[in-house]
UniProtKB/TrEMBL annotation, chain A:
The chain crosses the membrane at residues 12-30, 100-121, 133-155, 175-198, 243-268, 288-314. It comes from the Bacteria. GO terms for biological process: transmembrane transport. Its main location: membrane. The keyword Amino-acid biosynthesis does not apply. The keyword Cell inner membrane does not apply. This is ABC transporter permease. Keywords: Cell membrane, Membrane, Transmembrane, Transmembrane helix, Transport. Residues 94-311 form the ABC transmembrane type-1 domain. It holds the Pfam family BPD_transp_1_N. Belongs to the binding-protein-dependent transport system permease family. It is a multi-pass membrane protein. It is found in: Cell membrane. It comes from Salinarimonas ramus.
Automatic annotation (TrEMBL), chain B:
Belongs to the bacterial solute-binding protein 5 family. Residues 69-444 form the Solute-binding protein family domain. GO terms for cellular component: ATP-binding cassette (ABC) transporter complex; outer membrane-bounded periplasmic space. Gene3D superfamilies: Dipeptide-binding Protein, Domain 1 (3.90.76.10), Dipeptide-binding Protein, Domain 3 (3.10.105.10), Periplasmic binding protein-like II (3.40.190.10). This is ABC transporter substrate-binding protein. GO terms for biological process: peptide transport. GO terms for molecular function: peptide transmembrane transporter activity.
Length: 326, 531
């Protein structure tokens, strides 16, 4: 197990360096940061001095080496636009994004599994068919459109929920949370639904398909033959066996939930890292873009690792194969 | 947010009951497309940032609701020694938000700081100007040569407190390359009508009314809460749902919808920014064209043909939904006294085709066009309109519309003026023609700031000579005559194709009174709410 984890960590470092290289080469096409840092009627001499101070005139390999070395020490530099350390900015924005991602994932899991189970067991009812239709909408409509529709229905027309922001937040040490205030909960509903809708439909369809598959297998028939109640068969045996792929998907999707939060955060002006990133791209704020991409890369790598470990807990068959030399 | 709404409800309830108690605070909630990045007043010379900080900091002068120059921290000033010495009499009894008194030393300190490295406002104060302290409340500015517009931009040269800056180690503006965060980027200490009480960069900034302000406030606010909302649809939704009171800008396509709601309305008016098209007239062969061996834009007839081929009225009606003012000059009419004498040539494709044939291009030619797509109102759509209008006279335009970050990197001096034909917008920071002539029409020369943003390299030595005279001429009428002469030359040669003044569009909730200034600074110290 330990050898497995170490191997995975080494692979992760390789992946992160690759992410860094790709990110770094992309910045060269993002535009000239100096133009975003000063007004348009700034004299060229002033621009040139700034360019030199930022090290933008150095050779590219030198810039990349400097960037990797500093990133390895978790020093992502100072944001061009805010003149604040990027690590502070990300740290102050991370709680918003993580809370949103967690609430969205919980929403997706709970609602997705419930809807999936129901539509597998009561395939022909009208409600199951309605779920199928809803899931089509969730998969095919782009996130920003869903967000804007929700805003127009629930904020502008009905006036029930706020259209932007996080509501009131409470500071707990270095963490700000919106989950302890009423306005915070009101503010998170629409972003979380918007962000989680795609995952929800994915999980619902997955659970439904897996359930139907499992319900046809021999051990379910034996279970029925043993005279077990429907409840025990469906939830004790069938559902449990559908959960391995669901965990994989939900785990891997958690990474995309964080990464896709960019769009949801922009629509709802949710003050998280994704919004910070979008603004950084518009303003060619390279230090923020670099740090964010590395962060997202690290999250994906970490989640993959956790999912691998979770497999071995859920499915005992995998444990023996881990011990065997590969 | 719900709390704010309930506070509001309480406020209006209190007003309805007509009780003498006005205990509830009046909070104005304002959302802008862009965010307030740094509170240091010398880091970014940009309208939105200047407007925000203008609530907190003040300059020696101010500009009023009609942009007229008014006394600010200087009560009065006089010009001595043929324009080479300016004497400013400072206002007494003014204190900074931390309680320090405002004196001549603060002005001298600010003059040094604004000209130091890392400042984006270095040109606010001429490099050769010497500041002499006469007494605590009198300052002399000694200039190497007369400068009639010395104080034109001083409304946004904000005065900082010397002691405060020294105490917190911010004697210099934070350079973009700084290794440590700057205290002045997160904290502010001005003399203005509002103080910053909370500043979360990119999330929220709270301004609280300064009870000890030296002047009589025109607003009735206790607090301004600023939130950036970058998504157009969300910003409009926030206004329509009553979560914010003021938004800037309202996207053109949403104006009707906001107006038809019963919650809010839209204030519109011409902005000072002129949107125009420019040509590469410098290179002997265009970078992006099928014409080889020569540059068609060197021929004024070709430039005139472009002018005649573009129907600015049609762009106004179709692209701008009526919200633009076609322009004849490269400066907004509000900013030049003799603007009326200039008229935009009418749309005339026949004549345009004839001119192209005369210039040797009877079948037209191909040219590449650079255009930003996230900088000005409907910028890309304007360019597309230009492309199809030019197609009617035989010019094939290959449009390259990009986000501003890439666009400016390509076309500005730092990108080597890599363009043949482009769309740009310009507001003279000084509100004066000298800036327009010097920056956009002056001949480019190595090592000289003149003509740096003259991306096409238009050059006429007569115009350059006039620019020199305009800079030092102190008599207003004589100066305006010189400016008129310069514009007569540049419009006669079709140096540029001015398109229009774009419109300002601010969304304002019912019950809020605002003053819309043509430079698009949202100044809420003139706002009243709940009356």
């Amino acid at each position: 197990m330990i050898a497995f984890i170490i191997r995975r960590i080494l692979q992760a470092i390789g992946v992160l360096i690759a992410v860094g290289l790709i990110a770094f080469s992309m910045f060269r096409f993002a535009g000239d940061p100096v133009n975003q840092l000063v007004g348009i009627d700034t004299p060229a001499a002033e621009r040139e001095a700034l360019r030199q101070a930022l090290g933008l005139d150095d050779p590219v390999p030198l810039q990349f080496a400097r960037y990797i070395v500093e990133a390895a020490q978790f020093d992502f530099g100072i944001s061009y636009q805010f003149r604040q350390p990027v690590s502070d900015l990300l740290a102050s924005r991370a709680p918003a994004t993580l809370e949103l991602a967690v609430v969205a994932t919980i929403f997706a899991l709970v609602v997705g599994i419930l809807m999936g189970v129901y539509s597998a067991l009561r395939r022909d009812t009208a409600l199951a068919k309605a779920f199928q239709a809803v899931s089509l909408i969730g998969i095919s409509l782009p996130t920003f459109l869903i967000g804007i529709l929700l805003i127009y229905v629930f904020s502008v027309s009905l006036g029930w929920l706020p259209s932007f922001g996080r509501g009131e937040t409470v500071r707990l040490g270095g963490w700000t949370t919106g989950l302890l205030t009423g306005s915070g909960w009101a503010a998170i509903v629409m972003p979380a639904v918007t962000l989680g809708l795609f995952q929800m439909t994915l999980i619902m369809r997955l659970v439904r398909a897996e359930m139907l598959e499992v319900l046809r297998t021999d051990y379910i028939r034996f279970a029925r033959a043993r005279g077990l109640t429907n409840r025990a068969i469906h939830f004790g045996h069938a559902l449990k066996n559908t959960l391995v792929p669901v965990i994989t998907v939900a785990g891997l999707q958690f990474g995309s939930v964080i990464a896709f939060a960019i769009i949801t955060e922009t629509v709802f002006q949710w003050p998280g890292m994704g919004l910070l990133f979008v603004q950084a791209v518009q303003n060619v704020d390279i230090p923020i873009m670099a740090a964010y991409l590395m962060f997202v890369g690290a999250i994906f790598v970490f989640i993959n690792l956790v999912v691998d470990i979770l497999y071995t807990i859920v499915d005992p068959r995998l444990r023996s194969s881990l011990r065997a030399p590969t | 947010m719900t709390k704010h709404i309930s506070v509001l409800a309480a406020t209006s309830a209190a007003l309805l009951c007509a009780t003498a108690l006005s205990a509830s605070a009046v909070t104005l909630r304002y959302a802008n497309q862009g965010d307030l990045r740094s509170l240091d007043p010398y880091t970014l010379n940009e309208t939105t940032a200047n407007a925000h900080l203008g609530h907190v900091y003040e300059g020696l002068t101010k500009r009023g609701k009609d942009l007229a120059i008014e006394p600010g921290l200087a009560e009065s000033w006089e010009v001595l020694e043929d324009g080479k010495r300016w004497r400013f009499n400072l206002r007494e009894g003014v204190t900074f938000h931390n309680g320090n008194p405002f004196t001549a030393d603060d002005v001298i300190f600010s003059a040094d700081r604004v000209r130091s490295e890392g400042s984006n406002f270095q040109t606010r104060v001429p490099a050769g100007a010497v500041f002499e302290k006469v007494d605590d409340y009198t300052i002399d500015v000694v200039l190497p040569s007369p400068n009639p517009i010395l104080h034109y931009q001083w409304d946004t040269w904000y005065i900082m407190d010397q002691e405060w800056a020294q105490e917190h180690g911010v004697e210099k503006p934070t350079p973009a390359s700084a290794e440590t965060p700057s205290y002045a980027a997160l904290n502010a200490n001005g003399t203005g009508p509002f103080e910053v009480t909370t500043h979360e960069p990119g999330v929220r900034t709270v301004f609280t009314a300064n009870e000890d302000w030296w002047d009589e406030p025109e607003h009735n606010l206790d607090e301004i809460v600023f939130t950036p909302i970058s998504s157009d649809a969300t910003r409009v939704a926030a206004l329509l749902s009553g979560e914010v009171d003021v938004i800037e800008p309202v996207p053109i396509q949403d104006i009707e919808r906001v107006r038809s709601s019963d919650r809010a309305t839209v204030l519109t008016g011409p902005e000072l920014r002129t949107i125009f098209l420019g040509f590469d007239q410098e290179r002997d062969e265009l970078l992006y064209s099928n014409v080889e061996g020569e540059n068609p834009f060197k021929d004024p007839r070709v430039r005139e043909a472009f002018m005649l081929a573009i129907d600015a009225d049609l762009i106004r009606d179709r692209v701008m939904r009526g919200l633009s003012t076609p322009s004849a000059l490269m400066i907004a009419p509000e900013l030049f006294a003799y603007s009326d004498e200039f008229e935009r040539p009418g749309y005339d494709p026949e004549r345009a085709r004839a001119l192209l044939a005369e210039a040797g291009y009877p079948d037209g030619f191909e040219v590449g066009m650079d255009c930003p797509n996230d900088r000005y109102v409907n910028d890309e759509a304007i360019c597309q309109g230009v492309v199809s209008m030019l197609a009617r006279v035989g010019i094939t335009v290959n449009l390259n519309a990009q986000p501003k970050a890439q666009y400016f990197a390509k076309v500005l001096r730092s990108g080597g003026y890599d363009t043949s034909f482009y769309l740009l917008g310009w507001t003279p920071g000084t509100f004066d023609s000298h800036n327009v002539l010097n920056d956009l029409h002056g001949c480019r020369a190595e090592g000289s700031p003149r003509g740096e943003t003259n991306l096409g390299g238009y050059c006429n030595e007569e115009v350059d000579a006039l620019i020199e005279q305009i800079l030092v001429e102190s008599d207003e009428d004589a100066r305006n005559d010189l400016i008129r002469q310069a514009y007569e030359i540049t419009t006669g040669e079709f140096a540029y194709v001015p398109l229009h003044q774009q419109a300002l569009a601010w969304g304002v909730a019912n019950g809020v009174d605002l003053v819309q200034r043509a430079d698009n600074q949202v100044l809420l110290y003139w706002a009243r709410k709940g009356e």
